[in-house]
Amino acid sequence: MSSTDAVENFAALSLPEALQKALTDVGYETPSAIQAATIPPLLNGRDVLGQAQTGTGKTAAFALPLLARLNLEQKKPQALVLAPTRELAIQVSEAFQKYAHYMHGFRVLPVYGGADYRGQLRQLQRGVHVVVGTPGRVMDHMRRGSLDLSELQMLVLDEADEMLRMGFIDDVEWILEQIPEQRQMALFSATMPEAIKRITQRYLNQPEEVAIEVKTVTNTSIRQRVWMMAGVHKLDALTRILEVEETDGIIIFVRTRLSTSNLADKLAARGYPAAALNGDIPQKQREQTVQKLKNGELDILVATDVAARGLDVERISHVINYDIPYDVEAYVHRIGRTGRAGRTGDAILFAANRERRLLRAIERSTGQTIEKMELPTAEQVADKRAAKFKQQITEVLDARDLSASRKLVEDYQHEYGVPVIEIASALVAMVQGSSRPSAKRGESAEADGDSGSAGGHSKDTKSPAREKRERGGEHRKPRRNKTVGPDKGMERFRIEVGHSHGVKPGNIVGAIANEAEIDAEYIGHIDIHDNYSTVDLPEGMPKELFKHLKSVWVSGQRLQLSRVVMQVGKGDRSAPGAKSVKHADGMAGKSGRANRKSGKKKGKQRG
């Protein structure tokens, strides 16, 4: 365990000037505990065993010393980072790119299932310095000979316990057996189960052990809620919340500078005046924007973490994390913008299914469970809008001289013979028709690229029957009663890989969890047969994801995913002897028809 008392800034860690300049650009000032404890030994070439939760800043802890030791003249990969999911692989790859901004000629390549092989092959042939990938795709490239690790100097296992839980640990050990023995290694894991301890003992060389436990205190006067993105477009969800919540000033946090402007423009188009705050905006303009927020001339600010650093506006009633932060401390700093000066505040977080590990990390570190929130319904939005409109009518009746307006109504009534109530109704329709779009219209709004991908569309339903889910690398047992349909909130799918192909439940769980960005605990029952298997997945799979999963390879076979529609009282057709089933994706192809005929014959023989 290392102390960070003497480490006040990154300059004290002897990092190259190019890296320090990049850190200044992104607003990093003081190293986190894991960074202060890990960077020095890694710079000195030592192996490191780090026990730290997600959100402690460990990506920078291994990326910065790794970058400091690279030889940019060498074209073969010098460093490999293994991550459990493609989302994390992309995130780590983006972090490398950000830190290496002033290292001209630096190349990092993320490799993961679902991405085009040809593009990855071209980049590997051209030469890369760092590869960040999921175990399965890294293995594929190594077996093809397209990933040459003969010059590898550094290997990082990120979230090793997550790789164990997802069934990738055998793949990880295979990779470790193929790489040069003389190389530096860093392993990071939130927990240390026996399988991970065995790897550390076998593959790490007298590692520096670093254990970091983050406990961050959040203001108890701030109500924290999370909406697990499901079924509704992200921007539409935001506008529903803005309609229903009692708000004053609002800060909406996004990850990138570009997103601040895009989201502010889209909110303005929906009738919510909003301003962007990011590092590209001149300082004078930023000061003017903040002053407008303080004065009440502006109610919504869309900001990045860096731009909002040090922002202190008492009237902020709500902080909305439109993009979940990758760092726990960033989350705490964000929500600390509300609940000031003895006031209460509200913090709302948007999270996709694939981001549950970040959500859990935030809850662990803050010691608080974040309350799940239901998205306001279209009816609630309409009721709230009507109540606000009635209040506006009351305020106008109390505060204005309406004689001119009354004369206009009386003239219209006498001229056209229309009852006053009808005229008033028409005026209401005119006013509301020119105001913000209704929730129902908003739901069909154009996509803004922030819908949360697969996790954003999948229904967030956790079945109580999933108590036997995977733990510590153990996989769920096949269902014995083939006539039982999927649990509530789940759909059954058939995949064209089975016992004859050597597939195991862990292979199926790992592939789907990685490719579909579904947390492994939300993958339901798996039944493996000779030439096919069935798996239960959350309802509401997007068409793009359904199409993508058809082409995913497991145990040398394409999944050829097809949806199995259950009928009440009937079994699923993928079980021999079942009476009725429909394939919801239409034509299943010749092999699908042959399998169905075979199942029908078997059913007759057994019937």
Short description:
The protein has 607 residues and is of the alpha/beta class. It has 22 helices and 21 strands.
What does it look like?
DEAD-box RNA helicase involved in various cellular processes at low temperature, including ribosome biogenesis, mRNA degradation and translation initiation. This protein is an alpha/beta fold and 607 residues long. The chain has three domains: 10-211, 3-Layer(aba) Sandwich (Rossmann fold), CATH 3.40.50.300; 215-457, 3-Layer(aba) Sandwich (Rossmann fold), CATH 3.40.50; 463-606, RRM (RNA recognition motif) domain (Alpha-Beta Plaits, 2-Layer Sandwich), CATH 3.30.70.330. Helices cover 40% and strands 15% of the residues. It contains 22 helices and 21 strands. It has a seven-stranded parallel sheet with strand order 3-4-2-5-6-1-7, with helices on both faces. A seven-stranded parallel sheet has the order 10-11-9-12-13-8-14, sandwiched between helices.
Report the portion of residues in β strands: 5-15%
In the CATH scheme, what's the topology name of the largest domain? Answer: Rossmann fold
Nearest-angstrom radius of gyration? 28 Å
Q: Please identify the structural class as seen in this structure.
A: alpha/beta
Give a quick account of the main beta sheet: strands, pairing sense, barrel closure.
7 strands, parallel
Q: CATH superfamily membership of the largest domain, which one? A: P-loop containing nucleotide triphosphate hydrolases
Strand order of the largest sheet: 3-4-2-5-6-1-7
The helix content, as a percent range, equals 40-55%
InterPro entries: CsdA_RRM, DbpA/CsdA_RNA-bd_dom, DEAD/DEAH_box_helicase_dom, DEAD/DEAH_RhlB, DEAD_box_RNA_helicases, DeaD_dimer, DEAD_helicase_DeaD, Helicase_ATP-bd
Domain Helicase ATP-binding: 39-210
Main location: cytoplasm
Motif (Q motif): 8-36
